[in-house]
TrEMBL record:
The keyword Coiled coil applies. Residues 70-130 form a coiled coil. This is DUF1090 domain-containing protein. Residues 1-22 form the signal peptide. The keyword Signal applies. Keywords: Coiled coil, Signal. It comes from the Bacteria. InterPro entries: DUF1090.
């Protein structure tokens, strides 16, 4: 009984959100990505992840707007760029101290930071292309 009432509420909320979705294709894309993750979690029996993703999907469906989504990704990019600069400064500091072991460790972290930045930039391009349609 509880499952069916939760499903009904979910369905009603989803239908209520539909008109806003027509104007927010980037949010539709984000919701589809989350749904794919939910399906994967379900297939692998990861109930806790599935529940968290269900909450994330509901949040996107109720509150997401393309402009906000784009701004959030741009903020993430700025933060990642700051992290990269901090990492570069830290590498220079350790190099000056002669701590080559730390330099190598930090350079590996810098590579990961740059890869994440590249991923965020690609995501922004995709979202911008979707919202321009």
């Amino acid at each position: 009984m509880m499952k069916s009432s939760v499903w009904c509420v979910s369905a009603v909320l989803g239908v209520m959100a539909l008109p806003a979705w027509a104007d927010n294709p980037a949010c539709q894309y984000r919701a589809a990505e989350i749904q794919n993750q939910i399906d994967y979690a379900r297939q692998h029996g990861n109930v806790h992840r599935e529940r968290g993703l269900q909450r994330a999907l509901a949040n996107v469906q109720m509150h997401c707007r393309d402009a906000d989504l784009l701004r959030d990704v741009q903020d993430d990019i700025r933060e990642q760029e700051e992290d990269i600069q901090d990492r570069i400064d830290e590498i220079a500091e350790k190099r000056a101290e002669g701590r080559q072991d730390k330099v190598q460790e930090l350079e590996k972290k810098l590579e990961r930071d740059r890869a994440k930045l590249e991923q965020l930039q690609e995501e922004l391009k995709e979202l911008q292309a979707l919202s321009a349609k």
